[in-house]
Amino acid sequence: MVIVARLAFVVVTTAREFVDAHRAELLADLDQWLRIPGISAQPDHHADVQASAEWFADAARRTGFPIVEIWPTDGLPTVYAEWRSADPDAPTVLVYGHHDVQPVDPIESWHTDPFDPTIDGDVLRARGASDDKGQLLFHLLGLRAHLEATGQASPAVSLKFLIEGEEESGSPNFEALLAQRRDRLDCDVVVITDTGMIAADIPSTVTGMRGLVSCNVDFHGPDLDLHSGVFGGAVPNPATAIARLTGALHDENGRVTVPGFYDDVLELTDDERALFAKVPHDEAEFLTVAKSRALAGEAGYSTLERIGARPTAEVNGIWGGYMGEGSKTIVPTDAHVKLSFRLVANQDPHQIIAGVEQFVADHTPAGLDARIHWESDGVAPCLVPLGTPAYEALTDAITRAFDGAPVLPTREGGSGPEAAIQVALKAPLVFLGVGLPDDQIHAPNEKVNLSMLYRGAEAAALLWENIARVGRAGLAGAG
Q: 148, 288, 290, 296: which is deepest, by most CB within 10 A?
């Protein structure tokens, strides 16, 4: 045991020294890449998404990857890179992330140009700094540190990087890409690098992500706006009806009233709730970050349980009729609401879609036509079992990179294509992400703490050695 501990200390020191000595190179690369406005949701920036893919492909080649390809899709490109270990029996690891970024609106809320990276002490501000370009670049630096620490010309594991270009647009072509390229993507474990930690001094890892379905509901009433004095109170009003539908979405305890919504929810065990309770959470600070003044949600659950382990329904927008200055006394012809539903383990997006359609039908008055437009077939939730060999390899690497601090499991409230990866590749997932709750991803003034990127690089360097020690046989039962 003493020998193992001593070897681990040497590797940590060597990896850390390499990362610390090459910070300037990481910052120079970030400065270049963050200047590319690869906003996948905006067609005017699709050429920039292509340029972003080309930039990362070049960075992977400079790192040493012998195989680097840009894979076209029916939408925007994905970057694939592969570096085989010299050991033919070494496990294969697939690293998933994305190179596209969110829109920057409202631009007037930014304190700096979102595509002119600005450093203030430990903070780097730019769109994509945390989500997800900074986190991808710490992996490239971490790989170089791993090679330095081991003294080898190739990594201890075979590495495949799959870096998507449409994640911020809902990954509309990603499942098709996984199917088309399935023969190239075989792996023993998947590392997701698009998440975060509780705090800079509290290392953690995500152990679940929620699924998502979203839609527009349109109510159409009279074929033209009507005079409310002549027709009001005598014909159905679509704006009133859409408001009633929206108000009926939750009961007095904050539970969603969609038929069958909770039927398949995997309830938290007492042990899991105890783990949630161990996670430090300052509700006043949470409200400050949220720019909100009160907590709300499903009764009987803590804030962290509500956003990580419970399903939700949200009204994203509601409108209809006249919305200009002054009054216009009408019964409007149309009204609309945007709804989104976050799902947890065991919930099937298709069943939720069916339930929502039934809910809308039940709340559509006679004389109104209801139309539902679904944004996609939905994103499934995913859950990472605790205590698997892959999970232990990850948490050991994070603990050592963060100077012995224990790693807490958390669940991510957001959604992504992780479940699709898990289903397609039939491999266990683990999450190595170092974003912080106040990084303001998807919002103005996105930032990343540089110190977190450095520790992330060190954890990545250690992770490949850990997974190599576990071996393919050790990982085989972890999915």
A: 148
Please state, for a pLDDT cut of 70, what percent of the chain lies above it. 97
Cα 290 to Cα 123, 285, 436, 437, distances in angstroms = 20, 8, 14, 10
Considering only CA atoms, which of 313, 319, 343 is closest in space to residue 217? 319
Which two tokens mark 409?
């499991």
Run of H or E including 153: none
Do the beta carbons of residue 160 and residue 185 sit within 8 Å?
yes
CB distance 134 to 124 below 8 Å? yes
Angle 381-173-29 (CA atoms, 0-180°, nearest 5)? 90
Mean pLDDT for the chain? 94
CB 423 within 8 A of CB 221: no
Q: How many CB atoms lie within 10 A of CB 259?
A: 12
Pairing of strands 158-164, 92-98: parallel
Q: Could you give the angle at which helices 23-34 and 46-63 cross, rounded to 10 degrees? A: 160
134 closest CA partner among 458, 435, 462, 398: 435
**Whether pLDDT at 7 is above 80:** no
Over residues 313-332, the mean pLDDT reads 96
Per-position b or e across 393-405, b if 16+ CB within 10 A of its CB = bbbbbbbbbbeee
Residue 206 pairs with which residues in a beta bridge? 410
Task: Check: CB of residue 68 under 8 Å from CB of residue 79.
Answer: yes
- CB-based contacts of 407: which residues, under 8 Å, 6+ apart? 203, 204, 205, 395, 398, 399
Distance CA 132, CA 443 (A): 14
- Which helix (DSSP H) or strand (DSSP E) does residue 173 occupy? none
